[in-house]
Amino acid sequence: MTTRRRIHRRQGRLARRALLGGVAVLSVLAIAAPARADTVTEWDQIAAAALQSPGTATPPGAGQGAPSIVHLAMVHAAIYDAVNAIEGGHEPYVSLPAAQSWYSQDAAVATAARHVLVDGGLGIPALRLTAIDTAYEATLDAIPAGPAKAGGVTTGEAAAVALLAARAGDGRFGPFRFAVGTLPGEWRPTAAVNDAGAWLKDVRSFVLRDPDLFRGRAPHPRGTRAYAADFAEVKALGSTASSVRTEDQTAAARYWGLTNATATISSILRSVAVGQGGTLASHARMLARA
After folding, report:
1. Helices and strands per DSSP (H, E), number in the chain
2. CATH code for 3-174+263-289?
3. Residue 53: pLDDT band by 50, 70, 90 thresholds?
4. Three-state SS for 269?
5. Residue 95 near residue 81, CB atoms below 8 Å
6. Is residue 167 packed enough to be buried (19+ CB in 10 Å), middle (13-18) or exposed (0-12)?
7. What's the rounded mean pLDDT across residues 158-168?
8. What pTM does this model have?
9. Which DSSP letter does residue 213 get?
10. Which of 57, 110, 251, 278 has its CA 20 to 30 A from that of 193?
């Protein structure tokens, strides 16, 4: 066993937990570097654009508008494993492909992202798949031909294949839909269709061993004062002509309600990465954690 793999083994129990550290995500940028976009942030933008609705299809019978955050997480997990295989120093999320430190990280990032997006069965429309391949060719064309480029491509491909295998049968596109009721206190859709992404509740967690530990409390029972107070608050704040809702609350509701949340959060994280600096590897870790 090489020294590098011994390091990976010793750090075994730490890195997977670290992927959960959304609040601590900025810590990976502690070492300042010139502020610039890199291949990781570029492919985050490409992936977010390809996955966002409207237009994202799903496998037959799975409904439309699948939550893109799950698939973006898959992209970044593969990117992280590909870069980590070359850079070293951290435990892999799924796999540790054989790689040399001089392999092209740019080629590895682009290949890992492209493979998950194009070959992962994510239901991306054909027109967007063509755009992804065009972007991939542009990334590779900018990298000098040679063993470093070829090694990066091989590493990225291996990381993506392993990630997709690990996520196979993880509950995505399942049949679950929310039960529709007609009585007071029972859920009913505000549109003519059920939530096509309700299956998200059954998707296997990327990090948590038992997501049930983080469930919120159930609603207050109907007929209680607490339920009545919540109901009155929703009516007061949610009314079109509300006199108690602030302008900031209205703006926030419109912002998150009318934009694609995944693309918006992705844009925020890219801004942090570019503004704070850091290495390509630190950006790969940051976006995998997020």
Report:
1. 11, 0
2. 1.20.144
3. low
4. helix
5. yes
6. buried
7. 97
8. 0.80
9. G
10. 251
- Nearest residue to 84 (alpha-carbon basis) of 270, 289, 286, 285: 285
Show me where the domains of the chain are located.
3-174+263-289
Distance separating alpha carbons of residues 22 and 288, to the nearest angstrom: 10
CA 157, 159, 162, 166 torsion-angle sign: negative
Which two three-digit tokens encode residue 208? 């948590």
- Of 163, 156, 151, the C-alpha closest to 82 is 156
**Angstrom distance (rounded) from CA 23 to CA 26:** 7
**How buried is residue 6: exposed, middle or buried, by Cβ count under 10 Å (0-12/13-18/19+)?**
exposed
Q: What is the pLDDT of residues 111-157, one digit of tens each?
A: 999 999 999 988 888 999 999 999 999 999 999 999 999 999 999 99
CA dist 167 and 93 (Å) reads: 12
Q: Omega before 184 cis (within 30°)?
A: no
Q: Residue 45 contacts by C-beta under 8 Å, 6 or more apart in sequence?
A: 266, 267, 270
DSSP 56-109: ---STTS-SS--HHHHHHHHHHHHHHHHHHHH-SS--SS------TTS-HHHHH
